[in-house]
Amino acid sequence: MFHLIIGDNGLILMTRDFIEINDFTILVETAFSKEIIKDSCKFDEPVIAVAFYGSGNVNLEMNFPTGKREFNYTKGLALSFYADEQVDCIHTVSNNKPLECILIATATRNLQNLPNQEGKIFSELLENLVNPKDHYVEGPSFYMTPEMHQIIDSLFNISYKGKTKMMFFRSQITALLSHFFGQLSLDQAQKFQSEDRKRLEMAKEILSNNLDNPPSLTELSKALGLNTTKLKKEFKEVFGIPVFKYLQNERLKTAHSLISNKQASVQEAAWHVGYDSLSSFSNAFAKKYGYRPSQIK
């Protein structure tokens, strides 16, 4: 368990509930003030945390020796971060900007002990927080889904009492973390798909720009940072045609254009797109277009 070091501010109406669940510490925090008040807290050891902000819209500052990070619109924000003992977390609370925050945190020393593969999930999806390079490191953040909003609202308005209240609270925190990491996984998958699509488009560009002397499949794979099997499989899935077939089609299309626009003879067009054998070029051309290049008028 870690502890928060909290500033004393008598002008603010605040509630803080600390709940221990396995090696997680959950802080449920609300604050209201008719005046503009800054409330600060620190951790007494390095932690990895996810903060979920409810219906309030408090301002947040993360001050640390090497810089400062400000959040001016926190309503509905889910924010992951790493912070050590030198990070000062400051909320600016006012009449129009109350605080509703649920913080789920664990000391970094506890990561390997987290149950249900949670430590592995943290390491995979919050790698930059598990291996921090500064006093404060910001991880993935996003505005919550409707399902997450509903959970947050329920946690700030629990009507149950005693053991039933704790049972409900535990279940909702588990659901909240599941939604958070599920959204991260989805975003990560979409990001990878987007990056792979860019690399596949780059493959087309490289081939189109080097019709006379194209790279081998191995050379192309290395240039794109994809293994050969993945390149072949995903190129066909995305563009509906194998890599070699795409290259051949581009060669023949370019040659057809050169010949029909009288920019090159048949022999010159064949050389231009990388065919050393005129007969091989003519046969491939006829197979694609149904007539030989010499028949173009």
What this model shows, in words?
This protein has 297 residues and is α+β, with helices and mostly antiparallel strands. The protein contains nine helices and eleven strands. It has helices at residues 118-125, 127-130, 146-155, 162-208, 217-224, 228-239, 243-260, 266-272, 278-289; strands spanning 4-6, 13-21, 24-32, 37-43, 47-53, 59-64, 67-71, 77-83, 88-93, 99-107, 136-143. The chain has a six-stranded antiparallel sheet with strand order 2-3-10-5-8-11. A hairpin with a 2-residue loop joins β6 (59-64) and β7 (67-71).
Mean pLDDT: 87
Low-confidence parts: none
Strand content: 25-35%
Q: So what's the overall shape? A: elongated
Residue share in helix: 40-55%
Number of helices: 9
Largest sheet: 6 strands, antiparallel
Alpha-carbon distance between the two ends? 83 Å
Helices and strands, in N-to-C order? EEEEEEEEEEHHEHHHHHHH
The secondary structure category is alpha+beta
Radius of gyration computed on alpha carbons: 30 Å
Number of DSSP-assigned strands: 11
Please give the order of strands in the largest beta sheet.
Answer: 2-3-10-5-8-11
Question: Tags for this entry?
Answer:
six-stranded antiparallel β-sheet; alpha+beta; elongated; 297 residues; five-stranded antiparallel β-sheet
